[in-house]
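Thread: quick sanity check before group meeting

JM: Hey all, I'm pulling together slides for Thursday and realized we never actually wrote out the predicted structure for the chain we discussed last week. Dropping the sequence here so it's in one place. If anyone has concerns about the input, flag it before I start.
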Amino acid sequence: MPAPAGCGNFVANKQDGCEARLFAEPNCRLYMNTAVFIPEDRAVGGLWRSMSLRCGVPAPDPAALGSPPLGELMKNAKKRPKGGRR
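JM (edit): ok, ran it. Output follows.
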């Protein structure tokens, strides 16, 4: 990637079983995190410079993953103030 990225939308069918391995440096050096394609709103933080995409991975059990690290912030962001517009 030409510059560090801090946000990404990874889209795949659940049946595809895809994951994105994120790296902090070009050429897939310095492993940072894995973003798994699951039908759930889950933030993946950090800045990455390269990634490796792989499909055909067995789907993880969402219960085994635990709650997202930023789950409470995401829930609060979706709430609208009383009387707020849509």
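AS: nice. The chain has one domain: 14-78. The chain has a mean pLDDT of 75.
JM: adding both to the slides.
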